[in-house]
Amino acid sequence: MSTANVPRIDQLRELALPAPAASYWPQTWGWLALALLLLALLVAWGVWRYLRWRRDRYRREALARLDELVQALEDPQGRLAALRELPLLLKRVALSMPGGEVAAQLGGSPWQSFLQRHGPAPLPADFAQRLALLAYAPAERVATLADHEVHALLGASRQWIEAHRVAV
Description:
This protein is an all-alpha fold. It has a domain at 57-163. Helix content is 62%, strand content 0%. The protein contains 7 helices and no strands. Helix 2 (57-73) runs antiparallel to helix 7 (147-163), helix 3 packs across helix 5 (127-136) and helix 3 packs parallel to helix 7 (147-163).
């Protein structure tokens, strides 16, 4: 056998790739229109989410303040101030809502019905009375509130702040 006819390894060359059978670019304008439509929907959804996030800033701030009040309740020195601030917090949330200016002068049963009308779940029947007690009762009366009553008020307040309906 002769070695002249056997090719050496350094003489091998790579084969050229064949041209693609079809282009990767869409062939019709329909695909481009669909892609643009999907992009527009995605941008619109992003803008909607951003505007909603900005609109609910007052809600996030109120929940953060409510968490601070809950922590302040554990301190005997700050308990009274924290309890006194809860009705103010709910009133500020109501005023921060779009169209919430009507809540500025509400008290008693109109305040209760406003909270109930904008809340997703029923509130305790005496919720507004308890808030008024926290705001206006003597310090000795507020200090004698049982922990379960305070936690029930805080729970109802948190639920209302988190889920109240805003009509825009």
